[in-house]
Amino acid sequence: MKDISQKPRSPRTLAVHAGTRRSQYGEVSEAMFLTQGFVYPTAEEAEARFIESTREEFIYARYGNPTVAMFEDRIAALEGTEDAFATASGMAAVNGALVSMLKSGDHVVAGRALFGSCLYILDEVLPRYGVDVTLVDGTDLDAWRAAIRPDTKAVFFESVSNPALEVTDIAAVSEMAHAVGATVICDNVFATPAFSRAIDLGVDVVIYSTTKHIDGQGRCLGGVICGTQEFVRKIAEPYLKHTGSAMSPFNAWVMLKGLETMDLRVRAQADTAWKLAEALVGHPKLTRVIHPHLDSHPQANIARAQMEKGGTVLALDLAGGKEAAFRFLNALEIVLISNNLGDAKSIATHPATTTHQRLPQDQKDTLGITPGLIRLSIGLEDGADLMADIMAALDAA
């Protein structure tokens, strides 16, 4: 089998071909090995494999599976990392990357603008086990500088935050962290693998919820941790395989199929999101239109340097608060009310009452999660149809 990743290749080519393992039948589409166990020719070989198995030898699906391994190799090639470990969900990846490397007494600095479940791990789970967590304004380099200590073990941030789309200066924060020997862990979902430069900018470990743009069609949960072989196989894998975070072979097969079209989908979605953001600026019903590449975005220059396009998500802040936001949501006909993102279907979310509802009001205020904030994930529908739907809903608001 030819390994096409041995030569310089375009990310779009890698997303279609990298990591393919073909069976003796020579199938074109990747095979789905829907099995939880594997057979050994002899007792001696079973013993040898449990002592030390290679990436081409498998023991149990919780430890590894050929279909899952194909997905891991492909996303690692695409992201530019040595290795990857696929997990059952994006949150399993976040939890696994952090918990596998931390112990009581360790110190972590994290950007405070996080998805609700990420914040739960950092704010509640890790401190229970003696990990010291400092949360900072991820856009404030002085805050990072003041919080990172000589004994800091890791820093964690969302490259573009959920839901208010704050942008962290990846290169600057990575440089500070590396100066004290800390590991840089980045949740890169909003940047997407299509527009990511996280590894080039200094990140050590990149996390994706593959539920989002990689699947991209609302079918399966999944996550992945991308990094060095040392981190993935020696630090993350022992924790993940013993605690049951493995991605299922079926979901891995869906993710492989999603990667084949991801670049095309995400670019089309990002182009539509940008056109909508530009067109909605100044609308009388809106106090803010948030998009990383708009001139009005406080970190626009950083976002443009880090991401070729501004991503598939924008946020609208309705002047009339929660009541206006709910009227807007209920008037939408094409855009769906749901809490996923990165889907082929456009989705609207009211973070204050859904994904971030558990946060106290003062934290919502700090993070810019106002009662009128709507997160819009733009899909593959016709841009003119989406604009008409959004404008009609704003009229109703």
Layout of helices and strands, plus pairs?
Layout: H1 11-17, H2 43-51, H3 66-79, E1 83-87, H4 90-99, E2 107-111, H5 116-128, E3 132-136, H6 141-147, E4 152-158, H7 170-179, E5 183-187, H8 192-195, E6 205-209, E7 223-227, H9 229-243, H10 249-280, E8 286-290, H11 300-306, E9 313-318, H12 321-331, E10 336-337, E11 347-349, H13 361-367, E12 373-377, H14 383-396
Helix pairs in contact: 1-3, 1-10, 3-10, 4-5, 12-14
Count of the domains: 2
Biggest beta sheet attributes:
7 strands, mixed
Structural class: alpha/beta
Number of helices: 14
* Helix-strand topology string: HHHEHEHEHEHEHEEHHEHEHEEHEH
Tell me the Rg in angstroms.
Answer: 21 Å
Which architecture of the largest domain per CATH? Answer: 3-Layer(aba) Sandwich
Described by the principal axes of the CA atoms, the overall outline is globular
Please identify the oligomeric state: single chain
CATH class descriptor of the largest domain? Alpha Beta
Unreliably modeled segments: none
Average pLDDT figure: 95
In total, the number of strands is 12
Beta percentage is: 5-15%
End-to-end separation: 58 Å
CATH homologous superfamily title of the largest domain:
Type I PLP-dependent aspartate aminotransferase-like (Major domain)
How do the strands line up in the largest sheet? 1-7-6-5-4-2-3
Fraction in helix: 40-55%
Question: What structural keywords apply?
Answer:
about 400 residues; alpha/beta; Aspartate Aminotransferase, domain 2; Aspartate Aminotransferase, domain 1; 2 domains; 14 helices; about 40% helix; globular
